[in-house]
Amino acid sequence: MENFQIKNTYKKARTGILKTSHGNIKTPNLAIVATHGQIKLLNKTEHKRANPDFIISNTFHLFVNNKVKEIKNAGGLHKYFDFKKPIMTDSGGFQVFSLGWGKVHGIGKIKKSFAINKEKSDLKRQVEISENGVNFLFNKKQYELTPEKSIKIQKKMGADIIFVFDECTSPFHSYTYNKKAIALTHRWAIRCLEEFNKKRDVTNFDQMLFGIVQGGIYEELRKKSSKFIGSLPFGGFGIGGSFGEKQMKQILNWSLSGLPDNKPRHLLGIGKISDIFIAVKQGIDLFDCVIPTREARHGVLYTKMGKLAIKKGIFSKDKKLIEKGCGCWVCQNKITRQEIHHLFKKDKLDSSRIKAQRLAIIHNIYFFKNLFIEIREAIFKKRLDKLEKEYCNYF
RNA sequence: GCGUGGGUGGCGGAGCGGUCAAUCGCACCUGACUGUAAAUCAGGCGGCUAUAUGCCUACGGGGGUUCGAAUCCCUCCCCACGCA
Fold first, then answer.
1. What is the C-alpha end-to-end distance of chain A, expressed in Å?
2. Nearest nucleotide to A290 by CA–C1' distance?
């Protein structure tokens, strides 16, 4: 019955295998974000070329785009999108933050400065949180998600791994606010579990439900949340929240303190390379992040020697491959930097730019897959610190 | 040769007497992007500098009108189209 096995460890880091109904995930590993069910901009062929190990889609966005019924009728996400590997769905909890306080405070997941964006702080908040659940005002329409509703939707869509509906707070929130918020998130976690344990929906396979630890930047709250969430019978655990750049290690330490060792831990939304190393070294097994795909769309290509901002003029006559020896479809097909550069330029048609973006996405996904292969290998060979140093020269 | 329309910053292209170092695109340069509201955003882009309600040189060349000209007049050069 155990669907997570730890294989090797190095200090706190570990490699393992997470079994799902759609195959195994070698950990540590990173889910590619496919919010609407597919990786943005990629068609089926390109999806196969990119070949992500597993993906994560989003309950909120599929819900507001009216996709849930269609997906259910098709027999779930795997069939609807013809993706045979593991899929996760996020619960919509992050949108409580990103469309709510995140928008009001003018920040994203990682706080970079101490100042709230004044212009944005005048915005009326478009997310209302109550005991029962959350009301969202999105694209001028009202939507409601509750713990039960989020789980029901996620069961209908049938991802292999689903998440509890939580409240992700802003790094600007006080201790008092966070204390209330984790209490709510904890009550919601129980409601999610109860809903999850009701009869199966369309899925004819097992799903895993992951709980989520919150607590902001506060040691006491993180530890408390970790202990509480860790005591519940979840298949795995997510570490959620929005915090400052330099607090990663400490917050992870607190957040993992109460979780059982033998269950997988997923750090939600993290994906900067330096952060990945920090997290793996704390014992994180799973990640998901928009960085590989979003930065690709914005013209950033990853190589072991750092990022290439491929739209810059210096690449207009660069006949080299993105990265020598890279096994991705783009590099294997000898598509050069200058070709991608020219496809990216704005005076070209949209279709040309999209082609460039697709190539960039395929390459970056490969890069991150490979990064995690190296991380797993480095844990096995007890040389993770060395690998981190090699990468951190450039990232 | 005649006629007409033009010559503006790397390019395209606004401006048609003061608020113009000159709208806007493109190109170029710098940044940003961490459970996707963003196939996106922010800043710079004549020279100098303490980076600014500062100085200098600028709208094909020269001259003129005017308190003031990229904008009006004369002249020269060049370009496009049309007619010879």
1. 40
2. B36
pTM assigned to the model: 0.92
A108 CA from B34 C1′ (Å): 8
| CATH superfamily to which A4-289 belongs | Queuine tRNA-ribosyltransferase-like (3.20.20.105)
Domain ranges across chain A: 4-289, 297-386
Whole-number distance in Å between A295 CA and B40 C1': 10
Judge whether A82 counts as a catalytic residue. no
> Which contiguous run of DSSP H or E holds residue A51?
none
Per-residue pLDDT tens digits for A333-356: 999 999 999 999 866 678 899 999
Q: Give the span between the Cα atoms of A335 and A319, in whole angstroms.
A: 9
Any idea which nucleotide's C1' is nearest the CA of A356? B39
CB count in 10 Å sphere of residue A44: 11
Given the residues A53, A275, A285, A288, the one annotated as active site: A288
A27: which strand partners? A16
- Decide: helix, strand or coil at residue A67: coil
Strand B bases, protein C-beta under 7 A: 25-41
What is the value of ipTM here, to two decimals? 0.90
Q: Which residue stretches of chain A have pLDDT < 50?
A: none
